[in-house]
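Contributing new records

If you add data, match the layout below exactly. Sequence lines come first and carry their own label; structure lines follow with theirs. Keep one chain per record. Anything else will be rejected by the validation script.
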Amino acid sequence: MTLKPKPILLHNITTSMNDKDQKNIISRSGYEKIVGEINDIKTNHLPETIEVLKDARAQWDLSENSDYHAAKEKIALLERRVVELEWMIENVEIVDDDSVTWSKWVIKYWSIVTVEIEDEKSFTFEIVWTWEVDVTTVPLKLSFESAVVSAVQDKKKWDVVVAKLPHGRKNVHILDVK
């Protein structure tokens, strides 16, 4: 009996490193954000850091040159980030709001949900992939890894669920789903 390798869990979507047919789903804005970060690193941050490295290299004793070592480390971090971002978008399916086929009443990826947490105010959030999370926007962009979103997943408008939050278990009332 041969055992199949376990799939790797990545941001709540099961994929296998050997399965090139498996697509990772991402929103158009999430894709554009990642591509923008790649371009920014390649056109701005890397060239600037390479210039710092050249200037530091011009100072003779590299063994005690902190600018040289910091620049080398920064270049390595930037290159690693580019590889990570390129891997994220290597095998994706971009999903626009118009192409979502599931019921608009059931909470899934890219749903915009308004909830009211017991003894607290109501708030609205959009469900996105982990790397698209942004709590500075309106609506908030939260992933299924958050306690509130995982509690309301696959639920419908007017459902009441219990979410395990950092400050205890709370009832969450789903007020609207778009």
